[in-house]
Design goal:
Shape: globular
CATH superfamily of one domain: Alpha/Beta hydrolase fold, catalytic domain
Number of strands: 39
Structural class: alpha+beta
Strand order of the largest sheet: 32-33-35-34-36-37-38-39
Helix content: 10-25%
Strand content: 25-35%
CATH architecture of one domain: 3-Layer(aba) Sandwich
Number of helices: 16
Largest sheet: 8 strands, mixed
Oligomer: single chain
Low-confidence stretches: 1-22, 325-338
């Protein structure tokens, strides 16, 4: 298995002219590693570092962050490989990290006896390489060999090597795939199925492979056999191999039409070509159990005479999904198959299943349900007595975030966690399909939460929609607008912002007197597919209006004020920060713009921007360019506006969100004479988690900036 954030009267609404892609200024900064670009980066870093790292408070903040990130008493995240538990571990001694293993019985003790399998620090030193761990995919059934993914500096592109778990060495003459953005699965013990850059004309405009091939042991890449070909206009084509407890194998190929829509094909033994499954384009397959596919829907689906609503979780017989391949479905198909798909769960109002938190074991399906952004763990078992799926709910914390951590390769064992804003993470183990579990690990408290309280409120957005948000603040806090407050949100790609225990926020902000807000704005997945779709494409402004409404509500309550209010977001949340700066500069005194998208008129031209057209729209289509231009932060910057002092930060090796966005935005602010701080880490990639020491410095700089702007 794979191991795998003032009042409306003062609003400033920007209407900038649409710039064609060829007219964008500072385009030279998109040349990631050019001498001119890197000279600019070095000059900007040289201006920012003395301000932030030279602040008297920086060293203590960095030290606290490093203590948290490299603590030896944190929970070692478990991942099953066969009957053993594996973990990837980083600390002050193992900066790049070690991949290690122990038995399940040992893991459940207070002091597991770990055996190092692969030392990344030693490997990087021996090979004079900047290797960063990206995970491992281990051979099924035997669980003796794994495909280890290594990244140069944290990029999404990886080199893949076959590794022997018995000898703890890379396999001499084994599978070795050169660096690429690639997806690989074990087809059998000696065959891989994969997609990657096979050479000119084999990658999409988003930079991902669309040609799927099989590769046998001993073959070179040019000997691989093509089994599927998508199109250059797709996002990608990627293989998956599912197996159930009865030994059945299902080989799937996901043709990504855009970020959210895909056509799913099955590659069956004895068939010359893959056959398309009769599933809606907006759906996700989570596993294979008792010959059925477990599917969640992100759109309504009418199948053989019955309609299933978006948000539903289903179990579907594969022969039914392939019926259209052999003959047209008859008019009385609903009579022939009265239950073409079995419903496991239909969320109610203000509920949603987390589509990234649905898993399948040998005999059950587990899923995380959020009810008004409060999580619980559901288990679905097939009743032989009643011949139907039956649901049970695990007992747990109120107001919690719940996470499926790892499921057993064989059997129904499950690790899951639960946590709250002020409640440290607990790791629980459920050994069987029965609704019983025990706490096996508890994270020690990383900050003093004894004087903190958590509330949930609602703000009213511009169109009247109620937007929930969490407040974490001091008990008995003042209502005079004096609280230094950080407002965090994401608002895109159906990703939810949940009540998680964040030691960095707790220690570096809350314990020092700060207030923390988390806004559940549209574009996320907090209330299912409809909540996401409400802010797609032409309706993007709704997410931003929601964010502003939460800020205004907090100000109205006297919780904070524009002088004491800061905004933080990264990636798509970094785009949110750019819009917050340009549309409502009056609301904030600090804005952390991290790993952002900002030039939305050119985002599709920068890797991997074209894959997100399904979220934002296509700037090459005039009608869509018009609504993108209305919020694109880079184009919205204009002279004569007093912008808050922003801290803009990215990574040179971010090959997911191009660093050119952040660079050009900072350069444009400089051209306008508006002050800003810019810092670019030359390593780390999009995730920023390659090195605990570098990550501690990153957080130290973030909170030094926020302290200067909001607490001083």
């Amino acid at each position: 298995m794979k191991f795998s954030a003032f009042l409306a009267a003062a609003a400033v609404l920007v209407a900038a002219p649409v710039l064609a892609a060829t007219e964008t200024p500072f385009e030279w900064l998109e040349q990631v590693g050019s001498a001119r670009s890197m000279d600019w980066v070095k000059a900007e870093n040289a201006k920012t570092l003395p301000v932030l790292t030279g602040d008297a408070r920086f060293a203590a903040l960095q030290a606290e962050a490093l203590k948290i990130l490299s603590a030896r008493d944190r929970i070692a995240t478990p991942a099953f490989v066969g009957d053993q538990v594996f973990n990837f571990w980083q600390d002050a001694t193992h900066v790049r990290g070690i991949w290690r293993r122990t038995s399940l019985a040992s893991y459940r003790t207070a002091e597991p006896q770990w055996e190092t399998v692969l030392d990344l620090d030693a490997l990087a030193t021996a090979e004079h390489a900047n290797w960063i761990w990206k995970g491992a995919d281990c051979r099924p059934v035997t669980h003796d060999r794994c495909l280890v993914e290594l990244s140069n500096g944290g990029k999404d592109a990886v080199e893949i090597r076959e590794f022997d778990l018995k000898t703890k060495t890379f396999v001499d003459g084994g599978f070795r795939l050169s660096e690429s953005k690639q997806t690989v699965s074990w087809l059998d013990a000696d065959t891989l199925i994969l997609t990657r850059d096979w050479g000119p004309g084999t990658t999409t405009e988003s930079g991902y492979g669309f040609v799927v091939k099989t590769l046998k042991r001993g073959q070179t890449l040019d000997q691989a056999v093509e089994v599927f070909r998508g199109d250059m206009k797709d996002v990608s084509a990627s293989p998956r191999v599912l197996r159930d407890a009865d030994g059945r194998r299902m080989v799937l190929i996901d043709r990504g039409l855009d970020f959210f829509n895909s056509a799913l094909f099955v590659l069956r033994d004895g068939k010359a070509a893959p056959e398309q499954l009769d599933l809606p384009h907006r759906s996700s397959v989570h596993g294979y159990i008792h010959g059925q596919l477990v599917v969640s829907l992100q759109e309504d689906w009418t199948f053989r005479g019955r309609t299933f609503p978006a948000g539903a979780l289903l179990a579907v017989d594969v022969p039914d999904l392939l019926l259209q391949q052999s003959r047209a479905a008859p008019a009385n198909a609903d009579v022939l198959s009265p239950s073409p798909a079995e419903v496991l769960y239909l969320p109610k109002a203000r509920q949603a299943l987390d589509r990234d938190q649905i898993a399948v074991t040998d005999n059950r399906v587990v899923a995380i349900l959020y009810d008004n952004v409060r999580g619980s763990l559901l288990s679905f078992n097939r009743s032989t007595l009643h011949d139907r799926w039956e649901q049970e709910t695990y007992p747990g914390l109120a107001n919690a975030a719940v996470n499926i951590v790892s499921t057993a390769d064989e059997g129904d064992g499950l690790f899951y966690s639960e946590e709250g804003f002020t409640t440290p993470t607990k790791l629980l183990f459920a050994p069987t399909a029965a609704i019983t579990s025990t706490v096996v690990k508890t994270l020690p408290a990383r900050f003093d939460a004894s004087n903190l309280m958590v509330e949930q409120h609602e703000a009213t957005s511009k169109d009247g929609t109620k937007i929930p948000y969490f407040i974490v603040t001091k008990k008995g806090h003042s209502h005079d607008g004096s609280n230094p407050t950080l407002l965090h949100a994401y608002g895109g790609f159906q990703l939810s912002k949940l009540p998680v225990y964040d030691p960095i926020v707790g220690k570096l902000w809350l314990e020092r007197g700060g207030t923390y807000l988390v806004a559940n704005i549209r574009g996320g997945g907090e209330f299912g597919p409809a909540w996401h779709e409400a802010a797609l494409k032409a309706n993007r402004q709704r997410a931003y209006d929601d964010y502003f409404a939460v800020a205004e509500d907090a100000i109205r309550r006297g919780l904070t004020s524009p002088r004491r209010l800061g905004a933080y977001g990264r990636s798509n949340g970094g785009l949110l920060m750019g819009v917050a700066m340009t549309q409502r500069p009056d609301l904030w005194n600090a804005v952390v713009v991290e790993s952002p998208l900002l030039d939305m008129m050119r985002y599709h031209l920068l890797p991997a921007g074209a894959s997100w057209i399904g979220e934002y729209g296509d700037p090459t289509i005039p009608a869509e360019a018009a609504w993108i231009a209305r919020y694109s932060p880079f184009q919205a910057l204009k002279p004569g506006v007093k912008y808050p002092l922003a801290y803009i930060t990215t990574s040179t090796k971010d090959d997911r969100v191009h660093p050119g966005h952040a660079r050009k935005f900072a350069a444009r602010l400089g051209e306008l004479g508006s002050p800003y701080l810019y810092y670019e880490n030359t390593d780390g990639g999009h995730a920023n988690g390659a090195d605990p020491a570098a990550n501690a410095r990153r957080w130290g700089m973030h909170y030094t900036y926020l302290t200067r702007q909001l607490m001083d």
